[in-house]
Structures are given as structure tokens and as C-alpha cells.
Design a protein that fits this description.
This protein has about 325 residues and is α+β, with helices and mostly antiparallel strands. The chain has two domains: about 140 residues, Sandwich (Immunoglobulin-like); about 170 residues, Glucose Permease (Domain IIA) (Distorted Sandwich), CATH 2.70.70.10. Helix content is about 15%, strand content about 40%. The chain has four helices and 23 strands. The strands form five sheets. Strands 11, 14, 16, 17, 18, 20, 22 and 23 form an eight-stranded antiparallel sheet that branches. Strands 1-2-3-7-6 form a five-stranded antiparallel sheet, covered by helices on one side. Strand 17 and strand 18 form a beta hairpin. The longest helix is centred in the middle third of the chain and has 23 residues. It is elongated. The relative contact order is 0.14. It binds zinc ion.
Length: about 325
């Protein structure tokens, strides 16, 4: 894990000295204000992997920093302080903290095409109402993506008509709502993640794509081989958030796993679940198909933290599960 402890030793000692002098002054002159309370504890932040890759998911955690012996001679309560609220961002994208033992933990995403470092900041509030902020630069591992050309139906290779554009906008907004809900909901994915199919990868995340030589885009999911009718399972514990026919993605199932985590399963020939159903890792949720913008049947698997798409393999690496796949 990467670790950064904000080094505030000197200013802390200065504050303590000032407090001690104020206490002496107050003792000599009872009319003066009593010494101010000791400063609130510091925050400690860690993340893994130490250098997350562009387009990947990683994990970040924050705790009140244990105060070293002698560091706070006025008897501060740093070791026992409780954070009552914790917010933060990585690369201006919101985090979703939950309690994990002594730590507060959140998944986080490095977007594709991210710079070589991203800024993370957190703000913690203690029970007495005081707060601490901390910001750190997280180094990003660059990724070199593949490039491929595809030939598809002309309807999709050229710019969309008004009706299709409006439908696509509605699809995008529905998916965005799932992302917002996931950031607000508690995490359900603690038992780990499985691949939605045990099948060959036919196109990796991030691959640059050209459709009929006209539209260039990046492949924001992972393609898994399959024939029409093959089973697709839920990657993790979650709640079914969308069961829809989308314009480009075809028949989709979206799962809200809470803690900011969303998975999507595209181009299905059949959707086996309903909105509101609770699923667990390995449970069948659909069947492979070729609906939407595709060249043939396969599963396009999407993983997002909030609204940021990441390489699904980075999720499996971060939260490996023991269930069937
Ligand atoms: Zn795909």
C-alpha cells in the first residue's frame, strides 16, 4: 500500500507550546481565557495498488492517525477519536466511504487518458465538530491500448438521426442515475467478484475503435466470447438496477453493488432478472446475444466506479471472489 503521513510535527509542537503558555497565563490570571483544546487528530491515507493503472479500479482508505507518544503532551485523544463524516475525491470524482475496522475505505477509479498523477483529497469530521483535510498526489501507471477497425451496420457507423440520438441520451441518463445511486448506497460486494462468463476475452478494455472508418471511440468494456443463449452470471452481490433495451448496448442488465460500484451486461438475448431483484455472485442474470451495435454474439461487460468506466479485470484483481464463474 502507498502510505502518506502528513508530517505536521513541528507545527503541532508549536501549537502545544502555545497551549501550555496559555494555560500558565490562565493559572496566573484567572480572568483570562482557559487554554484552547488540543488540536484534532491528523488523518492517515493509504491506497492499493501503490501505482494504480490508467483505466483501473483501486482501493483507498483513511483513518485518524495515531498520535505518537510525546507528540501531544496535552493529552490529545488522537488514538480514540472517531470520524463521524468523511468525504473526498480522486481526480475530482467523488469517493464513497464505508467503515472497515479502524479504517474508512472507498473504491476509486483512474479514468482512461488520466494524467501521470491524480489528486486525492479527503475531509474528515470528528465528533466534537472539528475537521481535518488531507490531499495527496497518486501516481498513475500509463497503459498502451490496442487499436482495431470494425465494420458494422451503416445505421450505426454514421452519425445518429434525431430519434436515435434522443433515445441514446435517455439511455445515458438512465445509466448515470444507476451510478449516482451506487455512490449513495452501502457496499454489497464484500464477498468478492467473479467473471460473468468463464470464456475467452475477445476485446480488451480501452481498445481504440473505428467504425466504418468514420466514428472513433474507445472500447469501455471487456468482451467475452459466447454463443447466443450462453449463460451470463452476476459478477458480485448487488441489486438489479436496469433491465432495458438500449440503442447501442442492446438488451442490458445493470447491477448496483453499492459503494459506488456498478456492473453492466450488454447485447443480451435474454434478461433473466427484474429491477429490484437481489443477486449474488455467480447467479444467472441473462443470456449472451447480439442485440444493439455488435458484429456478432458476445458479452460486453462494463464495470464503473460512479460514472467512470474501468477495466473489469482490475475489479476482479482487486476483489477476487471464490464463487463459480
Ligand atoms: Zn464490447
Amino acid at each position: 500500500m502507498g502510505t502518506l503521513r502528513r508530517s505536521r510535527g513541528r507545527s503541532w509542537l508549536r501549537l502545544s507550546m502555545a497551549g501550555a503558555l496559555a494555560a500558565l497565563a490562565a493559572a496566573a490570571h484567572p480572568a483570562l481565557q482557559p487554554a484552547p483544546p488540543p488540536p484534532p487528530p491528523l488523518l492517515e491515507i493509504e491506497w492499493e495498488p501503490t501505482r494504480p493503472a490508467e483505466g483501473s479500479l483501486f482501493r483507498l482508505r483513511v483513518a485518524p492517525r495515531a498520535v505518537a507518544p510525546g507528540e501531544n503532551p496535552e493529552g490529545g485523544d488522537g488514538n480514540r477519536a472517531e470520524l463521524v463524516a468523511l468525504t473526498g475525491e480522486v481526480g475530482q470524482l467523488p469517493l464513497a466511504f464505508h467503515r472497515s475496522g479502524a479504517w474508512h475505505e472507498s473504491l476509486a477509479a483512474i479514468p482512461v487518458d488520466a494524467p501521470d498523477t491524480v489528486l486525492a483529497w479527503v475531509r474528515g469530521e470528528f465528533a466534537d465538530g472539528r475537521a481535518r483535510s488531507l490531499s495527496v498526489w497518486i501516481p498513475v501507471e500509463p497503459v498502451v491500448y490496442d487499436h482495431e477497425r470494425l465494420a458494422v451496420a451503416p445505421r450505426f457507423g454514421s452519425p445518429l438521426g434525431d430519434a436515435d440520438r434522443a433515445r441514446l441520451d435517455r439511455n445515458i441518463e438512465m445509466a448515470a442515475q444507476v451510478s449516482r445511486d451506487a455512490l449513495a448506497d452501502p457496499p454489497l460486494w464484500s464477498s468478492g467478484v467473479v467473471m460473468p462468463r468463464s470464456a475467452r476475452i475477445t476485446s480488451r478494455f480501452g481498445t481504440g475503435r473505428e467504425f466504418n472508418g468514420q466514428v472513433t471511440s474507445r472500447h469501455m468494456g471487456l468482451d467475452l466470447q459466447g454463443a447466443v443463449g450462453d449463460t451470463v452470471v452476476a459478477a458480485a452481490h448487488g441489486v438489479v438496477a436496469l433491465v432495458e433495451p438500449f440503442l447501442l448496448a442492446g438488451n442490458v442488465v445493470y447491477l448496483n453493488h453499492g459503494g459506488g460500484l456498478v456492473t453492466g451486461y450488454f447485447h443480451l438475448s435474454a434478461q433473466l432478472v427484474q429491477v429490484g431483484d437481489t443477486v449474488v455472485a455467480g447467479m444467472p442474470i441473462g443470456r449472451v446475444g447480439s442485440t444493439g451495435r455488435v458484429t456478432g454474439p458476445h458479452l460486453h461487460w462494463v464495470v464503473r466506479f460512479g460514472a467512470t468506466s474501468v477495466d473489469p479485470l482490475s475489479l476482479v484483481a482487486l476483489l477476487p471472489g471464490a464463487g463459480p464463474s
